[in-house]
User: Which sequence fits this backbone?
């Protein structure tokens, strides 16, 4: 069953004569529990598509169906509410808060969920242990390696058990060992039923996914 | 709540320079505002206290149009009886408060008659000063209404009462000007007498019942009279307590304070004099230089302080607003991460507001310490200071709302790694 369905989606940046179309009448489907790679050349609109799926940005036209229900995002807050229920993000540069500890960075995802404080703590510690960064829980991001940062970002993404994880070049800033480790974790999550959409330009990463959605320019 | 508290803690450390700047700016502006408000309130308080509504009221002095007619007002004459009826009608009119003017007198001074020596600066210079050694300045009143209507109050002892103006045996009550207070106390008895060739005459005693407040003055047609070195006494002290003196003090320079400032006093007086066929009166506004000056100064102060208050508020709002906006823009990547992680925009805004109010509230402390150490009290309502302080903070916060409302997550997420 299609979890996400995008119909005739268009997106351009800029206004009037200076508007640059990035996506034109795009149709896209993502099934529940699938592991999908979005590939394409630079400027093909991979990240734009991912941001539209994650309600980080809004389409100019077209329909967005989630679980068969049409979504209309009009403000940043609409996107926040939608993501809080359904989607987590992992990005290439980790997007961690440098002034929060590893523990707090992961806990952040649970602050707006109806979870009791002691349960939150338990969940965070479980995820940190699973990703083998429990001993780093009191460290701050600037004290971590790239791989450790990415595992923290993944921990933050999975701690509230979202239906989908959107990963934008998740291994782009990592060395080979860390890259493998990250992909192993994502595949493990996929095996557990979490839907994963990875934006990548790396064919090897794409090859590890169930399906590849290739974007050509526009 | 957990996010708000943790974010405030984070911002306290991450933006300590901005917070310190907000603290200093608000502390300085609030202190300036406090001092202005304090001084203004103090000035207003002094003005109100010194120049009560009664003192500020418009008044006129009355005089017989033909001053030569005073010679006809001899006790026992028919005209004297008529004049007394006119006097009664004027004093008892429901349209105004009327009171007799004071008359100046000289009090012969000799060292023996006073508990302490009075310095020379208190002595009057008169053409006939050879007649006695020295003379002190005295002011004779005909009723306590004069004190009430001119806002004359005592800082020690008591003010005059009706009974003080009745014929009494023993020492006359006297209220002394504030500058005489180092030399005389309440309860002191003074004896005023002329000594010539070893013979005492004009032997009068008075007991100090009160000391006038500092900077007391009274108003006559010609202007203000400083009475800080003066002895204020009932007229009986100088054998002027009789009804003929009181009549003269009313008809020649008596003062009328109308209840309605638009009242046609001249017309009302004409009605009274016509009723008894008495000589007409002329009226003349009493010149209240000090009252007018104080009003002008007070109004100027109000305008000046209002302008300064607006400037201070604007300075506080601009400077705090700029720092806060820059701080928020600098923090945009983190705010985007919060939004990506599902933290609602409202909570992020609330945490910024609480953080601002926290540092802003700390900035109140120097002013509170200043007021406590310097004045031990607030002369003005606390809400005025709080209104300025928190009003400035809240206005400074306003630009944050559209700034965060328009935040471009897509752009910031893409730029995050750069």
Assistant:
């Amino acid at each position: 069953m299609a979890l996400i369905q995008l119909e005739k989606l268009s997106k351009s940046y800029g206004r009037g004569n200076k508007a640059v179309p990035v996506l034109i009448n795009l149709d896209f489907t993502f099934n529940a529990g699938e592991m999908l790679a979005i590939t394409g050349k630079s400027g093909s609109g991979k990240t734009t598509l991912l941001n539209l799926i994650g309600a980080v940005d809004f389409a100019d036209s077209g329909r967005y169906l989630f679980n068969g229900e049409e979504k209309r995002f009009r403000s940043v807050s609409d996107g926040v509410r939608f993501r809080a229920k359904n989607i987590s993000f992992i990005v290439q540069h980790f997007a961690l808060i440098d002034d929060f500890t590893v523990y707090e960075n992961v806990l952040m995802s649970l602050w707006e969920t109806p979870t009791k404080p002691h349960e939150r703590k338990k969940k965070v510690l479980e995820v940190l242990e699973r990703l083998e960064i429990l001993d780093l829980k009191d460290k701050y991001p600037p004290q971590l390696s790239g791989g450790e940062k990415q595992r923290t970002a993944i921990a933050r993404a999975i701690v509230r058990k979202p239906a989908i994880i959107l990963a934008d070049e998740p291994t782009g800033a990592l060395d080979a060992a860390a890259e493998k480790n990250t992909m192993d974790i994502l595949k493990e999550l996929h095996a557990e039923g979490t839907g994963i959409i990875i934006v990548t330009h790396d064919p090897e990463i794409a090859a590890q996914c169930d399906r590849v959605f290739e974007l050509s320019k526009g | 709540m957990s996010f708000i508290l943790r974010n405030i803690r984070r911002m306290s450390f991450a933006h300590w320079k901005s917070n310190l700047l907000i603290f200093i700016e608000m502390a300085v502006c609030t202190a300036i505002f406090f001092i202005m408000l304090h001084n203004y309130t103090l000035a207003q308080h002094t003005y109100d206290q010194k120049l009560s509504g009664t003192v500020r009221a418009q008044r006129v002095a009355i005089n017989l149009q033909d001053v030569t007619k005073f010679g006809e007002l001899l006790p026992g004459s028919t005209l004297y009886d008529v004049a007394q009826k006119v006097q009664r009608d004027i004093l008892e009119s429901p349209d105004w408060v009327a009171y007799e003017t004071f008359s100046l007198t000289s009090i012969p001074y000799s060292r023996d008659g006073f508990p302490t020596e009075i310095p020379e600066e208190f002595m009057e210079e008169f053409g006939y000063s050879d007649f006695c050694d020295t003379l002190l300045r005295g002011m004779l009143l005909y009723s306590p209404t004069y004190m009430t209507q001119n806002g004359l109050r005592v800082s020690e002892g008591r003010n005059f009462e009706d009974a003080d103006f009745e014929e009494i045996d023993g020492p006359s009550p006297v209220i002394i000007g504030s500058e005489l207070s180092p030399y005389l106390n309440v309860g002191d008895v003074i004896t005023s007498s002329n000594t010539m060739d070893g013979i005492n005459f004009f032997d009068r005693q008075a007991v100090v019942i009160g000391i006038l407040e500092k900077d007391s003055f009274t108003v006559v047609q010609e202007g203000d009279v400083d009475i800080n070195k003066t002895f204020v006494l009932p007229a009986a002290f100088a054998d002027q307590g009789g009804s003929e003196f009181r009549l003269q003090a009313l008809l020649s320079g008596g003062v009328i304070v109308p209840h309605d400032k638009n009242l046609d006093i001249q017309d009302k007086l004409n009605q009274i004099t016509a009723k008894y066929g008495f000589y007409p009166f002329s009226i003349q506004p009493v010149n209240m230089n000090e009252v007018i000056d104080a009003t002008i100064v007070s109004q100027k102060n109000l305008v000046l302080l209002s302008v300064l208050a607006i400037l201070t508020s604007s300075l506080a709002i601009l400077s705090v607003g700029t720092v806060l906006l820059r701080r928020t823009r600098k923090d945009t990547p983190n705010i985007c991460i919060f939004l990506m992680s599902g933290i609602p925009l409202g909570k992020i805004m609330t945490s910024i507001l609480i953080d601002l109010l926290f540092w802003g509230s700390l900035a109140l402390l120097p002013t509170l310490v200043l007021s406590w150490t310097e004045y031990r009290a607030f002369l003005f309502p606390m809400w005025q200071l709080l209104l300025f302080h928190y009003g400035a903070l809240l206005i400074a916060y306003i630009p944050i709302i559209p700034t965060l409302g328009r935040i471009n997550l897509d752009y910031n997420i893409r730029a995050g790694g750069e």
Summary: Residues 92 and 185 of chain A are 15 Å apart (CA to CA). Chain A has a mean pLDDT of 86.
